[in-house]
Design goal:
disordered N terminus; alpha/beta; 711 residues; 28% strand
């Protein structure tokens, strides 16, 4: 008992000392109205959405069927399995010229689609043959699925039925193919009895030949299902919800390398992507890897119209990326481009101008009328266009100049975004910025970098010295890679998130020139990844948002309209302060990169009486903490704080990202953003250990608040 009392007293003394230390050493963060320096960009935090790691097809797109129309060029039967029937992919009697392949079947047996499968052992790049052949459509208990397939009956007589093929399901629904003399869409509604993975299976029983094409398996709870606005496609609900919870200011799409292509036939064609689904010409994704049988096509079921509708639903600005007629320079060497003045180049320019008309034109225009037909009569109010992705050299700048001139002449109100290549620095990077600042200071420059070795910690001042009279900055792709205990998801850990959070304070400090930023990549299917570091992992059933995701969510939802310059003398602390003077709310971001608790004496000067405060905090038991499928350890929490009339003393846990919101004057804490429901978490500690930790934490809070009252 004496030992327990001694431990308790030691903890109390330690807690008391930390609070006293804050005052004794004058660790004060003074926030003065006199030090407001600039407006904060209202476009600062957004999302980059690219179809990499099955992020769209196999992810955000609600359709569970892979290779749904037999168009995978390298393996037309990818994801399909047959048993008993005679089956062959043909292309003589096709549905339309953009969708030429179909399956011809005869006899008695089954035809199954196994969905978007996993490829690798958990958290590795080791190929797993068993997973590659395991059905991976994620069925949810009680969910109803709309199954659709097109049939053409040549001379088939017999029965066809379809069912969810998993342990608890397998109840068939019969389809009447007798009337399918030409290509005819048949549908069925099937409710799953359990949450489990499986396939979608057709049973064929009869004689003669039947043609099959264009399968879809859509959960009816998917976002946009059966709505006028989402005419062709709907979105996987849990992935959409994660985007919504971020409240992104913008969405960049479709790439990345995906926008450029590695051949002139593979450049993203936006006009193809706004056609009816069965008419959208599919082709291979740049991230396929045929050497290891990682097949990857683009169905374009989420095309440009769906992208624009997603932005509309989320209240985000669309930031589309168009090819400058230069193929992906990271993949194609010698570099290839479509030369200015050629007919092909004029087509590229016209495609961009037509796209702006599709977004903003009235319904009396050709493209505006098509937008209305696709479900959105109102303008999408497009304001931004990005020309090129990670391009460099004169081969790019010659094309950029001609495209920019054409856009400026036809649509001078459109803000144009250019690129600085793939590097943080170097000759091509410097040349890009020299070109922009001398010739195109009215543009925004898209910088990309993925860093290791603590680069973001060491270069927090990167944008402090940028020319304020030149182009503005868009950090369109960035992420930190921290040491982890393994690979993949374990590297998407708290320490990576803390490094990014520290660097983002520099974004806010320089938000007079840093206009926009977006972490990348956003989504990755578990064990089917094309990139090691990802913001949100998912499998067929569930999701695992990384700590980096939660940092993006906290920063995006807690941002004032003006920046307040401050100084704080602690090398372990990164901080940023923004204020919303209209609503009288202060946002104080504190990133504690050390393992020890840090007390910060926050004082406001000139803003009025402080009335309330709370904090949203991301921390965990170790800086290597990460979230994996089925094992969520690290999510934000929210707590109220005790204040005095001028501020408060805040205690930042070791390895933590803290967003303190302070109401002053007539400001109302209750009226601003609060955390959505967080997933249930597992814990490193036993329940008994956690109870002890919580007990001492309460004691510490009481001591801290006692001192703050007299602050």
């Amino acid at each position: 008992m004496k030992k327990i009392v001694s431990v308790v007293m030691a903890v109390i003394l330690a807690c008391s000392s930390s609070v006293l230390y804050a005052y004794a050493c004058n660790n004060t963060l003074k926030i003065s109205e006199d030090n407001i320096t600039h407006e904060v960009s209202d476009m600062l935090y957004g999302v980059f959405l690219e179809d990499i790691s099955y992020a769209i097809d196999g992810g955000l797109c609600a359709n569970l069927a892979a290779n749904n129309s037999f168009e995978y060029e390298s393996n037309t039967m990818y994801a399909w399995r047959t048993d008993g029937v005679s089956a062959e992919v043909l292309s003589e009697d096709y549905m339309n010229e953009n969708n030429t392949n179909y399956l011809s079947v005869s006899g008695t047996g089954t035809v199954s689609n196994i969905g978007y499968v996993e490829y690798y052992d958990d958290y590795t790049w080791t190929m797993n043959e068993e997973k590659m052949n395991t059905p991976d459509m994620g069925f949810s208990e009680g969910e109803t699925y709309t199954v659709s397939m097109y049939f053409k009956n040549i001379d088939f007589e017999g029965t066809v039925s379809v069912y969810l093929d998993s342990d608890s399901n397998k109840e068939p629904v019969e389809l009447d193919v007798s009337q399918c003399g030409d290509w005819t869409q048949l549908t069925a509604e099937i409710t799953s009895k359990a949450s489990e993975d499986g396939a979608l299976t057709f049973t064929i029983d009869g004689t003669g030949t039947l043609l099959m094409d264009f399968l879809s398996v859509i959960p009816q709870s998917s976002h946009g299902y059966d709505s006028d606005e989402w005419k062709y496609t709907s979105l996987r609900a849990d992935l959409y919800q994660l985007l919504e919870d971020m409240h992104p200011a913008f969405i960049r799409f479709p790439g990345g390398c995906f926008a450029e292509g590695d051949s002139f036939d593979n450049i993203y064609d936006w006009k193809n992507s706004v056609l009816p689904l069965t008419e959208r010409k599919q082709n291979y994704n740049l991230w396929q890897d045929l050497a290891v049988d990682r097949y990857y096509n683009n169905s374009y079921e989420i095309g440009y119209h769906e992208y624009l509708q997603l932005c509309d639903d989320l209240g985000a600005e669309p930031v589309p990326v168009f090819s400058a007629g230069v193929l992906c320079q990271g993949r194609v060497y010698p570099y290839e481009s479509i030369a200015v003045g050629t007919e092909e180049f004029e087509e590229i320019v016209q495609d961009i101008l037509d796209f702006i008309e599709y977004c903003n034109g009235g319904t009396d225009t050709y493209w505006g009328a098509l937008r209305a037909e696709n479900g959105h009569p109102e303008s999408f109010d497009l304001e931004y266009i990005a020309i090129g992705n990670e391009n460099w050299g004169d081969i790019y700048w010659d094309n950029f100049a001609a495209i920019k001139e054409a856009i400026n002449e036809a649509y001078p109100e459109i803000q144009i975004i250019t690129t600085s290549g793939t590097w943080l620095d170097g000759d091509d990077f410097d040349y890009a910025w020299e070109t922009v600042n001398s010739l195109y200071p009215d543009t925004i420059v898209d910088e990309h970098y993925y860093t290791i070795g603590g680069y973001l910690f060491e270069n927090n001042d990167r944008y402090d010295s940028y020319d304020r009279d030149g182009g503005q900055v868009f950090v369109g792709e960035y992420a930190a890679t921290a040491d982890g205990v393994g690979t993949m998801q374990t590297k998407c850990n708290l320490w990576s998130a803390i490094e990014e959070a520290s660097y983002m304070t520099g974004f806010e400090r320089n938000s007079d020139i840093v206009k926009m930023t977006s972490y990348a990549p956003t989504f990755a299917k578990m064990n089917a990844q094309c990139w090691t570091i990802n913001e949100i992992w998912f499998d067929s059933q569930t999701v695992a948002p990384s700590p980096s995701y939660y940092v993006q969510m906290l920063y995006s939802n807690n941002l004032g309209t003006e920046y307040v310059a401050t100084e704080y003398d602690d090398d372990d602390i990164y901080q940023s302060i923004t204020v919303d003077r209209e609503n009288q709310i202060m946002y104080v971001k504190i990133v504690n990169t050390s393992s020890v608790v840090k007390s910060v004496n926050i004082k406001l000067d000139g803003f009025g009486k402080v009335t309330a405060a709370d904090a949203q905090v991301l921390t965990s038991y170790t800086k290597r903490a990460c979230n994996t499928i089925g094992n969520i350890t690290t999510v934000p929490t929210e707590k109220s704080l005790i204040t005095n009339s001028k501020g408060l003393v805040y205690t930042a846990s070791g390895y933590s990202v803290n967003v303190i919101r302070i109401a002053y004057g007539d400001g109302d804490i209750d009226s601003i953003y609060h955390l959505p429901d967080m997933p249930e978490t597992t814990t490193y500690y036993t329940p008994a250990m956690q109870a002890i930790i919580d007990f001492f934490a309460d004691i510490f809070e009481n001591i801290k608040n006692l001192f703050s009252i007299f602050g």
